[in-house]
Design brief:
This protein has about 160 residues and is mainly α. The protein has six helices and no strands. Helix 3 packs antiparallel against helix 4 and helix 4 packs antiparallel against helix 5. The longest helix is centred in the C-terminal third of the chain and has 28 residues. The radius of gyration is 27 Å and the shape is globular.
């Protein structure tokens, strides 16, 4: 309904002030379009093979899809872990939480770390942190009560 009102108001006959404003805008518009058309920038090819030195947009798209899939998986794993605690759920949570955290911190590094050496150091630190996190969660699952039971014990306090 709101779209119809907006469409109708846009198609309505303009009043005096709107005519003056539209007249000035329409008078400038062709000059702006001509300046844009004169640019000698080649058109971007979105579905071609990546050029040398550039990353594959397909790989980035698959990575983004994987990140969303892990996020949605976590949305389902958390209630399932509450309803069906056990070793399989503990290890699934360990893997999904570690992967989710790894990808999230990787985006922070991408956004905020600049320069070749700092990026390499930050990425190395991220891999070490992710490996230690996963190993620690697996150790906790195997030698202690596990993630699900630990969260249940915290909630019972």
């Amino acid at each position: 309904m709101a779209a119809l009102v907006l469409l109708r108001s846009g198609l309505a006959r303009p009043c005096g002030a709107q005519i003056a404003l539209l007249g000035r805008t329409l008078g400038r518009r062709p000059a702006v379009l001509a300046a844009v058309a004169d640019r000698s920038v080649p058109a971007r090819r979105s579905h071609s093979s990546p050029q040398q030195g550039h990353g594959s947009s397909r790989a980035a798209s698959l990575h983004w899809t994987g990140e969303r899939a892990v996020s949605v998986l976590l949305l389902g794993l958390l209630p399932a872990a509450y309803l069906y605690p056990g070793p399989a759920m503990d290890y699934s949570l360990a893997a999904a939480l570690t992967l989710h955290g790894h990808w999230g911190l990787g985006q922070v590094i991408t956004d905020y770390v600049h320069g070749d050496t700092p990026i390499k150091l930050a990425n190395t630190g991220l891999y070490v942190l992710s490996a230690i996190t996963f190993a620690g969660l697996c150790y906790f699952n195997y030698h202690d009560v596990g993630i699900c039971k630990a969260v249940a014990m915290l909630w019972s306090l």
